[in-house]
Amino acid sequence: MPSNDTLNNNSMANVPSSSVFKDDIFRGKVLFCTGGGTGICQKMVEAVMRHGASAFIFGRRENVLHATSSDLSRHTLQRCSYASGDVRSIESLERAVAKCISEYGRIDFVIAGAAGNFLCPIDQLSPNAFKSVVEIDLVRCFIG
């Protein structure tokens, strides 16, 4: 197992996905991603789009989704659109899926990335916070 020094070493270069995958491996495909407006999910969406896919991102904050969608389209030269809503609402999720299918005709890939996070020790997590995390991270991935 690597030492902490190795894990924390920022000098390690990222391997470009183009060294592993063909540049157009996802050309003509459609990605649907919950939680794609920020963080690691945004970067995963970007990576898939750089290989030719169009993307549809879904999350709670419309202003963030609008900006991210525009940035992703501009940087990847692929189409990216979005819908805002709460992944805990089946109706909201169904509307987003319907909008994606209406715009793109289908969904080929899904990244179920929406997550609930409460950064605190478990003994400080309230029952409602725990229920929210389970609902977002587990139940909606299964149902959605």
UniProtKB/TrEMBL annotation:
**Origin organism of this chain?**
Puccinia graminis f. sp. tritici
Q: Name one GO biological process term.
A: fatty acid catabolic process
Q: InterPro entries given for it?
A: DECR2-like, NAD(P)-bd_dom_sf, SDR_fam
Q: Which Pfam families is this protein grouped with? A: adh_short (PF00106)
What this protein is called in its record is 2,4-dienoyl-CoA reductase [(3E)-enoyl-CoA-producing]
What's a GO cellular component annotated to this UniProt protein? peroxisome
Q: Which UniProt keywords apply?
A: NADP, Oxidoreductase
Q: So what EC number does this one have?
A: 1.3.1.124
What Gene Ontology molecular function terms does this protein carry? 2,4-dienoyl-CoA reductase (NADPH) activity
Per its UniProt entry, which superkingdom is the organism in? Eukaryota
Catalytic activity entry:
a (2E,4E)-dienoyl-CoA + NADPH + H(+) = a 4,5-saturated-(3E)-enoyl-CoA + NADP(+); a (2E,4Z)-dienoyl-CoA + NADPH + H(+) = a 4,5-saturated-(3E)-enoyl-CoA + NADP(+)
